[in-house]
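Lecture 7 notes: from sequence to structure.
We start with the chain below.
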Amino acid sequence: MSPQSSSAPAAALLSGEAFPDYAEQLQAFHRAFAAELEALVAAALPVAARRVVDIGCGDGFYVDLLARRMPESGIVVGVDVSPALLSVAQQSLRGPRCPVEFVVGDLERLPFAPSEAFDFAWCAQSLYSFPEPEAALRAIARIVRPRGVVAVLENDTLHQLLLPWPGDVELLLRSAELLEFAAESPRPAKFYVGRRLPSVLAAAGLQPIEYRTQSIDRIGPPTGALRSLLASYLDRLRERTSTRLTASQQQRVHPFLSPADERYLLDSPYFTMTWLNVLAWGRRA
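Predicted structure tokens for the same chain:
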């Protein structure tokens, strides 16, 4: 197994076209909820794990968390299809306790021999991006040793973020979002995979062990990383749903999504939000 990565500086990649369009929102998410996400890693990582892999590791946030909890005799491997993100991941490590490697690869060509099987596989907010979540988990399970553990951190798009907008606005947006998902994928249910993670683990041949939902609450107009995250989220939601809404529906919805409007959701003095993360893990037979 030999790590591969880009050597370009992270700052250059952030402004380059090689950098995935979701990267900025991903990094803001990690900054805004760092403490809560670290608690999820701590809950799922088996104490005895020595070989750990993060599938779809992105900017390396979870690789870093895992490597800081591992013994010196362990190893953490981050796998992603984006060399640009892996370059950022290499530069963002904050004093890991064990060796770390980064590998360019995807689920169809994971470059690990049977002798390199892992004790623990982590997959965070990547499962929905694969055409078939069950098939993706089966591929991940194949690189885990017998009795090894696979953990999945995901969201349910419908209930991922609870915001204080009027109920009719939320219904219009979520209905339009589902129409767009159905046009994008023959399996739009994958975007709501968080609600059925144990059954997906079981369908992939893994024995479900644990399932939990983490609720993150905030009150007051958001600032810093949280505002960046939520502003990016609302922008992407507006882009995703605009063509699925009538003119009158857009007039009703867009003031809450438009920073220039006085009704912009993030500027409300009574703003509240609840972000729901879903974590489940299972064991290979």
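Points to note: The CA atoms of residues 95 and 112 lie 26 Å apart. The chain has ten helices and eight strands.
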